[in-house]
Amino acid sequence: MIKRGRQEGWLKEPIEALPRWATFHGVKFNHVKIGPLPGFEDRGSTVIASNQLEGDKAVPLLVVPKDLIISRSNIELLARADRHLRQVLEAIGDFGRTTRGAVLTFLLMQATICCPDIKDIGLLNPLTEYVKFLPDELLPTFWSEEEQELLEGTTLRPAIRAKLNSLLREFETVRSATESIDWCAKYWWDEDHGMVNFEDWMRVDAMYRSRALEFPGAGDCMMPCVDMANHASGDATAALYETDEEGNGLLLLREGKKISEGGEITITYGDDKGACENIFSYGFLENNTTSAKVMFLGLEIPDDDPLRPAKLFVSTAAPGFRISEKGDSIEWESDFVWLVSINEEDGLDFKIRQTTDGKSEIQAFWKERELNDTSKIRTYLEDDSAWDVYQLRATVLLQNRVEAQIGTIQASHCTEQELTVRDVPWRLAEHLRSLELDMLKRAGSLLDSQKAKLLESKTVLQYLSMAEDDDEEVDFS
């Protein structure tokens, strides 16, 4: 890609050259500059106040012309003039018509155009040079296997596996769709001299994932210069980003904010994002992070459940449950757990139905009521006389899952940093493990309290009594 050979890194431009590029292409700076923060050079470049600033939304800190925004609509416009870009987007079909597919393909094309060994592919545009200013992000997808093993028991570990599998599928989709294009076969996929490999696809994914922002009127996109701003949450967020009536990107100081000369202009990447997502998408945690905030744990339907295949077929819910922090307490939510918790004896049924085109499909029913959306099961169960029994089953399922996750984290704890493990992954893994272990323990306490309360329910006591009279063993797990 932006490289001279398969083994060399992408070509980069020094950040000191960015102001010249920005000025030439119409980006307006108002009392701000881009570069490393003095004393924090290891954090890379950010937006810095070049004068003392006070909140005034009437004067944007940055104005980025709308045609510099890396968005799907702008990429479609560029593809009209660039036949090579258009060829690839058309070849990859539906994926190329998504924002993600269009942006990643566009970034890969700009890397191709920049390669000094390629002279006849693509059209130069202002963003071709901008890509060279983007730093390589140490996201977890680039952690070594030893570094990823530090995450065993955390929710980030399966997220990385799933992401790498997804990236590989995307990469193979792009390769298989474009290998019949002559110039792609020559420059990208040739076995001996091809310049694109899976790591290049991981790289453009990291660029997009760590820098995409949702702008009003522009959707998910990369906004040059604005995307250099670092994250800070809550009151520490210094600036807002939005678009003006003409579609240009703006960076605006928050009202009431005062930034001293040389101070950092921060934005928020999303205050509600949990610790796992922040590391996954951005490769960092704020120093003052004291809570995992949000966790998602997977759930499985037991293999001995006779309805398991049918349940999996009709399920429209994510297979797991979400634990989140609300004030000083913990709460959980899940649509999937209710599908796991009920069975045929309760009133769940499946029937085979013939469609108008002669095909067969499985249809779910709850006590003869058609169940088109399994996320609605809870609503049906709440109206059932055995609602407390269903709640108890779900609570015990989640409690067992939480206890298993706690055990995995504790069993895989490593006290010494290996020489092959870098400092950043080590610190992030240790911090995340601590945060998620704390949240899991709090969730376990909550579920234990809920279980104890449900065991006092008249409905549950009656259910248990009936089971004893029938000599049935009740296993809520």
UniProtKB/TrEMBL annotation:
Domain of life of the native organism: Eukaryota
InterPro entries (alphabetical): SET_dom_sf (IPR046341), SETD3_SETD6_MTase (IPR050600)
GO cellular component, as recorded: nucleus
Gene3D superfamilies listed in its UniProt record: set domain protein methyltransferase, domain 1 (3.90.1410.10)
Gene Ontology terms for molecular function: protein-lysine N-methyltransferase activity
Protein name: SET domain-containing protein
UniProt source species: Ophiobolus disseminans
